[in-house]
Design a protein that fits this description.
The protein has four helices and five strands. It is α/β, with parallel strands linked by helices. The two termini are 21 Å apart.
Length: 119
């Protein structure tokens, strides 16, 4: 398995996780892991390496930010992207992590991933 193409998705919304996984599979990404909780994500991060880590932001914000911080510390080579709803965007305006709007993920994510592969 090529760890630079492996993607980890952590989001509570089952339908969204599965839809995003299917979208990425259709785009040619073959190694996609999905988890529901920060604890599951941390266990995956201990065992495997990822090229991209996508974390859904829901309340409480602290758990997702803590997960993002730990993920970046454990796997500094991985691109990390927070998934945020448009209504919640003002709450993370000055965050240190990159983010993508959940409502625009299907139009913007592949461009973001491809930009990362080209650099």
């Amino acid at each position: 398995m090529n760890s630079t193409s492996a993607i980890l998705i952590c989001d509570r919304d089952h339908l969204f996780r599965e839809a995003l996984r299917n979208f990425l599979l259709a785009a040619g990404y073959l190694h996609i892991e999905i988890v529901t909780t920060a604890q599951e994500a941390l266990a995956k991060l201990r065992r495997e390496h990822y090229g991209c880590i996508l974390i859904g932001i829901t309340q409480p914000w602290q758990k997702a930010r803590r997960l993002a911080t730990v993920a970046k510390h454990r796997q500094p080579q991985a691109k990390l992207l927070l998934i945020v709803r448009a209504a919640e965007q003002p709450l993370i305006q000055n965050d240190v992590f990159e983010y993508i709007l959940k409502e625009q993920i299907y139009s913007d994510l592949l461009l973001w991933l491809r930009d990362d592969e080209l650099s």
